[in-house]
Structures are given as C-alpha cells and as structure tokens.
Design a protein that fits this description.
Length: 202
C-alpha cells in the first residue's frame, strides 16, 4: 500500500494505491506505468469523472494547484528545465482512461533527440501514451494468474491498442513504481516543508 493512505485509490477502474505519491482531499498524483520520459507522472481528481467539464469548481482548482506543485517537484528532482503539462479531454482527444488526468512531464534540452521537443505530443497520442491499454493488459494478466490460465490468450480479449514493441519503454513492475512513489512522496513533503518555512501557501 501507498505510504499516504490505506484507503483504495482508483484511476478509472484500476486500483493504483501503491503508485500514489501525493494526496489531497480532492486530488492525487501517481507514478506512470510507462512514462514517456523519466519523471512523467499523472495528477487526477479522486472522484472519477471522464471530462474536465465534469469537475466541480473546487475539484478543478485543486487539480491545477496540484499540477503546479507536482510539476515544481518533478522538475527539481529530475533536473529538468521545463515541463509538458497535457490533458487529453475525451476519447477523441486521445484519452485512454475515462478519468480526468493531467500528464506532467519534466523536460530537458534535446531529451527526445531527433524529432524535436514537440515529439512528446505524438507519443502521448500514439500507442506509447496509451496507459489504459497497458493497465487493461496488466489487469487481464492478474485475472489469468488468479484463474490459473497460462497466458496463451485463449478466450481472452485483446487490448484495444497493441502493446508497443519498444524495448526501451517496457511497462514497469509494481515494485519499481511503489519505490518511485515512496521517493516522490518524500520529495513532495520536503517541498511542502520548504514552502511553509518560506511563508508560501501550500
């Protein structure tokens, strides 16, 4: 379980409690199953709603304040100089999990090499950014294991999008994500402490 709570936290239909590193009464931040770049995290409202327009004013305000806080922290700890902040608001915009979420991606000069800094947008829209497909596949793997099925796929439904054949970007294991969440939780706590000592509102 996450060091922040024993209450289950869901991202869409997926239990993500161990991936959560920051929590408010209305929002949470979690490490990404398959980050596009190091430090790529998600910030989402606790209440599952599919679209930004479905958020209450309080939820919208909290979500964007947390995007700002989390962004400052990941930029610092990953040695970035900039951030991409993106929301795919609806299926036709590329949203793969029907739960509002903001991608916060720390950026550095030439971090994507050939293709330039805007390549991150095509990555988000393509199979590389389809977190929902990876979460669905992981959920099916767990169900097969629990049922004693060998994973040959007989009788199972395939993911809507194919799994990306990208050796450098394999979905991460639960232990790796839990450790990163614990580390980032400590970093968020340190940022909040520094902010309160400096007299900032947190």
């Amino acid at each position: 379980m996450s060091p922040l709570t024993t209450k289950p936290i869901y991202f869409g239909a997926f239990l993500v409690t161990p991936q959560v590193f920051h929590l408010t009464p209305l929002s949470f931040a979690l490490v990404n199953l398959k980050p596009l770049l190091p430090g790529h995290v998600l910030v989402s409202p606790l209440r599952r709603v599919p679209r930004v327009s479905d958020l209450t004013p309080s939820e919208a305000s909290d979500l964007f304040l947390e995007v700002q806080r989390v962004g400052r922290m990941v930029e610092r700890v990953f040695g970035a100089t900039s951030l991409n902040i993106a929301i795919q608001d609806g299926v036709d915009a590329g949203q793969s999990v029907d739960h509002v979420h903001a991608h916060v991606i720390p950026r550095k000069k030439d971090d994507l090499g050939k293709g330039g800094t805007d390549r991150v947008y095509s990555m988000l829209e393509g199979d590389e950014g389809d977190v929902g497909a990876f979460l669905e596949e992981r959920k099916r793997e767990r169900e097969r294991e629990a049922a004693g099925v060998n994973g040959n796929g007989e009788g199972t439904r395939r993911a809507k999008f194919p799994v990306v054949d990208d050796a450098a970007r394999k979905p991460r294991g639960e232990d790796e994500m839990r450790k990163e969440a614990e580390w980032l939780a400590k970093e968020m706590e340190a940022d909040e402490k520094r902010g309160s000592e400096a007299g900032e509102i947190s």
